[in-house]
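Here is one chain, start to finish.
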Amino acid sequence: MISDYHQLTNRTYVVHCELKEDYLTKFSMEFTVPTEKDAQHLCENWERDYEEIYAFTMSTLTN
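Its structure:
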């Protein structure tokens, strides 16, 4: 499980969240957000809840 962010422009941050299994990317998402605080919050939530987020997303997309 990986989460990180970087500043893209003066008022835009890119957040990258990823789930790996056996060195392969199983799931990956990117978001743009307006503040560093939002970017940090998304990373924290991903790190805490990645299993639930992954399960919900896969269930939603495959039903």
